[in-house]
Amino acid sequence: MNDRPDAAALAGAIEDDSTRTILVATQEEAVPVSELADVCGVSEPTVYRRLESLRERGLVEERTRLDEDGHHRGVYRATVERVAFDLAADGVDAEVTRRTSMADRFTDLVGEM
């Protein structure tokens, strides 16, 4: 699934190294804030602020993971596969290619039958 968000807002959301590191770190699996803070080399409150900005733009999602000791903890996963910026005659365009879940792919498959 592709969509075309406001290029300036998207560029602003991913302008710092920590935010881009969060997106890369959460591509393959959902990651807790404590691990993201370690990977980024910043505090957990900073990670939470970056995650909130990414969530507002639909670039990450929060999930709940049950630990072996029964506690719940939030983990985050990127919802995008690709973010691209293109120079055009009338300015800069942005395109976001979102990941599709297995359930969405199944629904699409059944809908095509």
UniProtKB/TrEMBL annotation:
This is ArsR/SmtB family transcription factor. InterPro entries: ArsR-like_HTH, WH-like_DNA-bd_sf, WH_DNA-bd_sf. Pfam families: HTH_20 (PF12840). It comes from the Archaea.
